[in-house]
Known about the structure:
140 residues, alpha/beta, 5 strands
Amino acid sequence: MSFDPNKKVKLLFACLDWRLHPQIENYFIKNGINCDLCVTAGSVKDLNDPQTQAFFIKQIEISKKLHHCQGVILTAHLDCGAYGGSAAFNDPQSEIDAAKSELEKAAAIAAKNFPELSVEKYIVGLKKEGTDWEIVPQKI
């Protein structure tokens, strides 16, 4: 088992979108958090779906057991293809509101099942810099 009592570990739920990686992991590492990763299309989308929720609950259980994770980091990024991208929303604010709603639902599920764990929520914007993408995380 790879548990290190000196490492602060949280389970990071992130979308599989290539524009996010490895920047999103590095963002938390720079802030002193080592992340177990649960990377799926839409990040928290399937955590909120009763038909697929058990898989995501199991990932938290495994992170707790193997690495004594101390919390869950939930992310939702803008222009997420699993939700239809930015084009699926009337305007930027409605996209942000939808992401916040998804994060709130996911946070309630995580807190209900794991009240001992901290839960953080981030909306992640994407900014193109030349040919590269940068992330713009905002904690909510």
